[in-house]
């Protein structure tokens, strides 16, 4: 599970880092994402990545994407603070999942 807090106060929950990266618009990621954690409390930094396409099907040019890079060590307290600061959780179906995560982290069984 990957949890992102965006500048609008919405906590977005993804099943995997790959799902989150697919959903992130590279041009807006660095500005919109205030915090990114996995369910163990490992923080991540979003980095824009550019690569050149040469003589490909779509011709020459550049493309951009987002890469998630681990930042420091796991910090479940920081994840709990991030969750607590959220205005709402999306998708709504993830509310229970986040509640179970909070219970697990609060008990120290991350």
Give a brief rundown of this model.
This protein has helices spanning 17-23, 26-32, 76-85, 95-106, and strands at residues 2-6, 10-14, 33-38, 43-56, 59-71, 88-90. By secondary structure, the chain is α+β, with helices and mostly antiparallel strands. The strands form 2 sheets. Strands 3-1-2-6 form a 4-stranded mixed beta sheet. Strands 4-5 form a two-stranded antiparallel ribbon.
What does this structure look like?
The protein is α+β, with helices and mostly antiparallel strands. It has helices spanning 17-23, 26-32, 76-85, 95-106, and strands at residues 2-6, 10-14, 33-38, 43-56, 59-71, 88-90. The radius of gyration is 16 Å and the shape is globular. The protein has one domain (2-106). Helix 3 packs across helix 4. Strands 3-1-2-6 form a 4-stranded mixed beta sheet. A two-stranded antiparallel sheet has the order 4-5. Strand 4 (43-56) and strand 5 form a beta hairpin. The chain is 33% helix and 42% strand.
